[in-house]
Amino acid sequence: MELHQLRYVIAVVDAGTFTAGAQTVRVSQSGVSTQIAKLERELGVTLFDRTSRRVSLTEEGRSLLPAIRQALSGIDAVTDTANAIRGVMTGSLRVGAVTGLTWDPLVDALAVMHDSHPGVDVRLIEGLSDDLIRAVRDGGLDVAVAGWAGAAPADLLTRVIVEDALCAVLAPDHPWASSTTLDTARLLTADLISLPVGTGARGALDAAAARIGMTATPRWEVTTPAQVSLLARRGIGVGALSENTAAGFDGVVAVPLADTAARSSLGVVSRREPSAAAQAFRSLLGL
Q1: Fewer CB near the terminus (10 Å): N or C of the chain?
Q2: Mean pLDDT value of segment 209-213
Q3: β 253-256/220-221 pair status
Q4: Which residue from 164, 139, 196 is spatially nearest to 266, judged by alpha carbons?
């Protein structure tokens, strides 16, 4: 088993195809394919299902992936320590953020890392909160700014940025706009505008619906809070967002839900043993 073979596996997993993975490691596709096939023969298992256009891990591959990432992380830790002794930071930093996030401390920290540590390859990936948290857990991301409903992920380092209640987002002339609170059941009868499953606000909405034996079935499912606000402002439905998020948009009214347990959190997550670059990034975020 060779170290570069393990890195090729991770490159293909993260990129989604052998071609894109090969470009990441700057090796020919045939070279990557040959080395991974050699590794599979040595391990006695097939790591990838190659029957579709976008390759995916087999069940055996999914089982081995955490161990492969852990092995590479251990090797990188040796390099990080040696670089720290020399006063140099190298390596990579993969940062995740929820789609559409506008949080200045994140952008500021990315800029400082980019300017102050040119030896660190810094990348930013946007996505759904659940996917980002899963990627941190699996090693695909080092740090992520993500949302969740309920308890924070117990197996990761977490720091809450903001935690607030879910609210209904309405056009100013909507009949419910003058309400002080809104029942969850009433909200669910509206033409609901919601973020997709995997976001913190949607998790809070689904949990609130489950508490009263109902299911949230949005008529309008969009990817960013801004889109929720735009649709609600035009009166074609009622949005569901966290209060702090809703407060950032003009032309809409936010009405809290009567269910005070309908809450979500936005925070920073990372593994419990972050790399030197990840720890430096966390420090820039004030963690």
Answers
A1: N
A2: 96
A3: unpaired
A4: 164
